[in-house]
Sequence to fold (205 residues):
Amino acid sequence: MLNLLAQNPIAFLIFMAGLLLSISIHEFAHCFITDKLGDPTPRIKGRLTLNPLAHLDPVGTLAIILTGFGWGKPAPYDPYNLKEPVRDAALIAAAGPASNLLIATLFSILVKLGVGGDFVALFAVQLIFINVSLALFNLIPVYPLDGGKIMRAILPQQASLEYEDIMEHYGTVILIMMIFPWVGGQSAMSALLSPMINTLLKIFI
Fold:
């Protein structure tokens, strides 16, 4: 990302505009589903909005600029307001990546129909890449990512409790180690996700 800023500032600005939009929709989707499941916490905290300022996480945004992967400010919810806390937490978590895949699908249709010409196609391709990357990154089953909450709901009860305990203590450390560039300047996260991202991009574009 820093190379892109140095080589093509306009492309960098387009990417960042798409990123702000995508993160805002991702986090809004979490908050929207939380509200629909009966927890008013996001509404009370002013997070039931598409305003990027309400959803950006400084560290997560910096991680995207430096590594190409990152996250938004965690969407707040109170498990005591949910009828089925584990299941509903997984549904809330899944809403974010699902919204990104929906955005990628919609803009893929625009690109394939040729709507808006070359400029719209350029912006649409950037949005598709961003949203596919955000969706896959957030589905990694490591806390505090969405995939961690989804994994907890999928696992049997005892395994779920043990998994939660490990992730609460070491999840952030594992995540940092995965996104930190190692040999050759490539991170473990990039090595893991790049093939999957490329496969989906071939479908969407």
Notes: The chain has a mean pLDDT of 85. DSSP finds nine helices and no strands in the chain. The CA atoms of residues 152 and 163 lie 7 Å apart.
